[in-house]
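Readers of this paper often ask what the protein records in our data store actually look like. This encoding replaces a full spatial description with a residue-level series of whole-number codes. For reference, a complete record is included directly beneath this paragraph.
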Amino acid sequence: MDPAAARGGFSLVRLDPAPDLADLVERHWVVRWDLPPGAEFTQVVIPHPNANLVAEAGGFAVHGVPRGLFSRTLHGTDAVLGTKLRPGALRLLRGDPASVRPGLVLPAAVALAEVRGGPAAPDVEEAGRRALAAVLAGRDDDAVAAVTPLLRVVAAARRTPHAAESLARIARVLSAVVAGELGPDAGVADLAALVGTTPRSLQRLFAGWVGVSPKWVLQRHRVHLAADLVAADPSRPLADVAAAVGYYDQAHLGTDFSRALGTTPAAYARRCAASRDALGGPGARGAGATDMVGAGRA
């Protein structure tokens, strides 16, 4: 939530997935931090509609879409490897409608080893250990190579034409939202028309595969955009920010922004301005307001 402050707390590296898993994996990410003794850094992240497979000191686990803001306090020196799944991918990998429940956390050995023909639980746990060791040694490609075969085996066992069609529709909707393809004031009906279905059917699709509604996705994306605009220029009038991201007035932006971030746009602007000043002025940009640490999102 505070890109300038994040610059001094951690580093973020993103890595592409294997081409044959690109329909399920958006990217892999590595977060590292090295803080002085007694120092700590807390990063708060706005959730996206994605699940993550995370290898860290506390274990190897699958984290579903967070219920709300995700925060993590960093100490000492450490690193984390994450695999950001595409919206709906966890439902496919698990084959279980309950997998889309917000706030879900499952050991990777449970999430990936319960699939018929999938990897054995000890093999999943060992892959997590190897991935974390590789990240700590600075071998990011080796870390990704440790988790990729697990996902490949489970995907091969779970992919079906129906699942592929569902994920393709979800991906089309999300890409349109992110690209602003339908304009800043697009609604659920516009998204449904894009994929040739009704608003009600689109809502059922997202409820069953993603765990959040299309309206949630639209609102959260607009809040992400607003947060990035404010972080880039804390002095920009908030009415201009609201109009730029598709709100008819500043009050509606304030309502959604406060619900998502737990703070008002004005308070967020003051926080970003203070961090920029402390870290050296306008050039002090960090990883981005929508980047993640730990099981939030990157």
